[in-house]
Design a protein that fits this description.
single chain, about 200 residues, mainly alpha, 8 helices, elongated, disordered C terminus
Length: about 200
């Protein structure tokens, strides 16, 4: 009954990697003015990436066929809220850092903030959906969980285009140099294996 939810969660972890700068190759950015910006963003984002990875793991751990519906609901509710909070904190961090010193930096920053806030709202909605499930009836709960899994699957496929755009080019290179972005990608990576 819960395999779809677990698989969808694995897909959701891919979103986290968009912020970890692991896709950007090393090398030096052309402009060292980007390094302080990248450090500020990476340092703020790293704990949030770890929070998302931990929430995904907690949900997956509780989402087994042997788990009682009430336990699954509790884990989902807390996990989705944690993920929502983490995306909101990432949006705030990028907003606080200001636009990176690149062409269209302000637009890229604003779009990334908007995208992260939208993700935060979507995960908060998933938490509400999970809270509303009927845990007294196993069959109804399974159907409801299936609905949550479908929403999560859609969410995991939603674009992180604005984030990718923000991290393109020199910004990505500057982020790739930051220790906190490297460790953020390492903590997010294990959760992306499809199950």
């Amino acid at each position: 009954m819960n395999k779809k939810l677990t698989a969808a969660l694995s897909g959701g972890a891919v979103l986290v990697l968009a912020l970890s700068a692991c896709s950007s190759g090393g090398g030096s950015s052309k402009d060292d003015k980007l390094d302080p910006w990248a450090k500020q963003v990476c340092d703020a984002v790293q704990p949030q990436v770890q929070k998302i990875a931990a929430a995904n793991t907690a949900i997956q751990k509780e989402t087994t066929d042997q788990s009682a519906p009430a336990d699954v609901q509790k884990a989902d509710s807390k996990g989705f809220q944690d993920i929502s909070d983490a995306y909101k904190a990432m949006a705030a961090a990028i907003e606080k850092a200001g636009p990176p010193d690149v062409d269209s930096g302000k637009t890229k920053q604003e779009n990334a903030v908007k995208e992260l806030n939208a993700l935060s709202a979507s995960y908060a909605d998933l938490g509400k959906q999970s809270d509303a499930l009927n845990t007294k009836d196993q069959a109804k709960f399974a159907d409801g969980l299936d609905g949550v899994a479908k929403q999560l699957e859609k969410l995991s496929k939603t674009g992180t285009d604005a984030l990718k755009e923000l991290e393109a080019g020199d910004v990505g290179k500057a982020m790739a140099k930051q220790v906190s972005c490297k460790s953020a990608s390492a903590s997010a990576s294990p959760a992306t294996t499809q199950g």
